[in-house]
Amino acid sequence: MDFSKAQYESLLAEIGAGLSDLRSRLDQVEPAATAAAGRWYVPPGVGDAIMWLGRETVKIGEQVLNFLKDLLKGAVAPIYMFIDAWDWMDVRGSASGVSSALTAQNLVVDNSDWSGKARDAYVGSVASHSGAALRIGSIATSTSGHLLACAVAGSAFYTTLAIVLAKLIIAATAAIAAFGSAVFSWAGAAIVLEEAGVNTAIIAAAVTTLSAFLAAQATSMVNLHGEAVDSSSFPDGKWPSPNSSTYSDGTVTDGDADWSLAPS
Fold first, then answer.
1. Alpha carbons 164 and 152: distance in angstroms, whole number
2. Phi, psi at residue 247, to the nearest 5°?
3. Distance between CA atoms of 223 and 40, rounded to whole angstroms?
4. By Cβ atoms counted within 10 A, which residue in 87, 138, 189, 256 is the most buried?
5. CA 90 to chain centre
6. What is the pLDDT of residues 49-94, one digit of tens each?
7. Domain regions of the chain by residue span
8. How many other CB atoms are found less than 10 A from the CB of residue 97?
9. From start to end of 178-238, where are the E strands?
10. Biggest CA pair distance of the chain
């Protein structure tokens, strides 16, 4: 899964410029239709039909334009998903570092210097701390992966949107040119109307696909929440306490470091 923040921001800028371009093209349709209908050789009935086609072309075009604008309301979401995915990998790195530092190999206790119940309790708690940190790293990795997948899916969706928008701009331009000749005015209107129908169908299919994917991701996030609240990797259902003040029953024998520690 690849996601480039810079490329995606460039895509959004391209879509924004495309929407303005399409708006400008639509504004030229009715004047072109009026000019075509007003030619001296165009019968009144045909002129009225050309005017109607011009209005319908603009009407359909504006509906598509507003539809595209609505879809763009969530366009920045993939960027935030990518940023959050990056941050979660930082959490993973920190947690894995803690887990590695707390392994028995890295926390060697010299038996000749320290022995007794306190030493045994300390050594026994190392594995639980390491396991708890490892669990946090695993959750962070899964969360990051799902966020990145959502960002990639969103990017693919808006790429489809950009392609559709480019085709609509070409169609509107062709329609304006066609309205320049009364002979091809019907074809000019048909170009925009057909493109609008075909491309809105493409968008609808893309929306359906995106919705299905995000629904699956929502399920995954629920599962991740289940992992987060699962206390099996945390002794007594909580992070192991490293604070000696949480322990009681400390005793010292004559000159010997024989501590007895029990969680309070």
1. 19
2. -110, 150
3. 71
4. 189
5. 18
6. 888 888 888 888 888 889 889 988 889 999 999 999 999 999 999 9
7. 5-108+127-238
8. 12
9. none
10. 120
